[in-house]
Amino acid sequence: MTADVRRRLRPPLTEGYVGNAIILTVAVGKMAEVVDDIPAARIRAAIMKLNDDYIGSALDFLEMQEDQRRLSRSAGNFSATDLSVTSWMQLPFYDVDFGLGPEEYIRAAAFYYARQCCVMKTPDGGAKVGISLETEYMEGFKELFHGLVPAQETVHALANGS
């Protein structure tokens, strides 16, 4: 997962900072645990370890690398069992004013590999999820998703901003 560290740095980045300030963290679980119960506590624990010391250590590690590009996430080094989930729920996309009126649609520009997921808020307070999967896994994903959240409840939840 990528986590926003703007407020975790000491001193924190300024309120108006618009550059990337993200760091990777990992929550590990067996597939059966993920299917039976989404391990929110593990995700929360992975994010909570991102304190100023941890971030400083990660930055030191990056500075020591001769070729930082080899560390990037790509199809060549992204395990077939991995799922990358990024939350943009806290990013103020709908507060940006370019002088052309309100935004019509905002989303991640691209997914560069399979099993990447991005969660964003909608203008009405709901959430939208973009996910990229290999074609052969789409039907199973739809069945699992609608088994967890039936279609009518999904529409109702989105309409009510849940």
UniProtKB/TrEMBL annotation:
Report any Pfam family annotated for this entry. Answer: Transferase
For this UniProt record, the keywords arranged alphabetically read as follows: Acyltransferase, Transferase
One GO term in the molecular function aspect is:
acyltransferase activity, transferring groups other than amino-acyl groups
Please verify whether the record's keywords include Acyltransferase: yes
Q: Which residues cross the membrane?
A: none
- What family does the Swiss-Prot or TrEMBL record give for this protein? Belongs to the plant acyltransferase family.
Name of the protein in its database record: Uncharacterized protein
